[in-house]
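Hi, here's the filled form for the chain we discussed.

Project: internal
Contact: R.S.
Residues: 118
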Amino acid sequence: MEPQATPPVCSEEGLPQPDPMTGDRIAQISKALGHPARVKIIEQFDQCIPHIAGEIVDESNLAQSTVSEHLRVLREADVLFVRKDGPRSWYCVRRSVLREYAAAIAEISERLSYLNVD
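And the returned structure, exactly as it came back:
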């Protein structure tokens, strides 16, 4: 059995600034999070610990190719980022993007609450 590699720090330091949280950006992230398997993948990052794809596959009970596609969608939405470590790719959640997304959704909800329609 191969020894467990030490994951890199899951810091956003050195990453480019995320795109502004426009309507298009909110829709892109919503679409990325709109699949139960992708939500389950994100939930694996409940602590700030990077994961390699194999760990994500093991936790999700999905095929490697399926997980790879979900990871691609999450990366394209800037919800995940990758740190390369030799042959390994460590995935980390872009927490700042999720916080901005949550704030944008909360703001929309707050604006809609003034409609007083139930």
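Let me know if anything looks off before we file it.
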